[in-house]
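Suppose a colleague, Dr. K., hands you the sequence of a protein chain of 141 amino acids and asks what its three-dimensional shape might be. Before reaching for any lab equipment, you can write down a predicted structure in token form. Begin with the sequence itself:
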Amino acid sequence: MDKRSTTDKVVQALEALKRAGKPVTLSGVAKRAGIERKTIYNHPELLLKVKQAAESRNVANPAPEPKSSRGKSVGEDRIARYRNDIRRLEDEKAKLLYQNKLLMEDILAMQTRLSELEEAVRLRAEPVARMSLSKRLRKNK
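The predicted structure, expressed as tokens, is then:
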């Protein structure tokens, strides 16, 4: 099969699919043209034609969204669920930030208390250290 006849078959298949209002897919074009899909993949210009036709078909005639049991489209249901998830996560984030703030305040208070206790221990230990130094000096005399 020569390149020209393959190109003609693909173009005819694309036109037939468009006229029939069917989706333009690589498999559908190959089947309608009576060629293998790999033939389209092996000819970049054919692959480009099929992709362009598929994109223009999908933009011009998008597939209708399936409806959910509540009459909304599935996409609308997803958006509503995502919005609810976002609200829930934002509330959870606010609670966690508040807890974090409280914990940081507790840490700061504990660090301050620890510094005070260390200072108190140091002050009590100084006289003892001085005393033991003076006792050692007396013994050496």
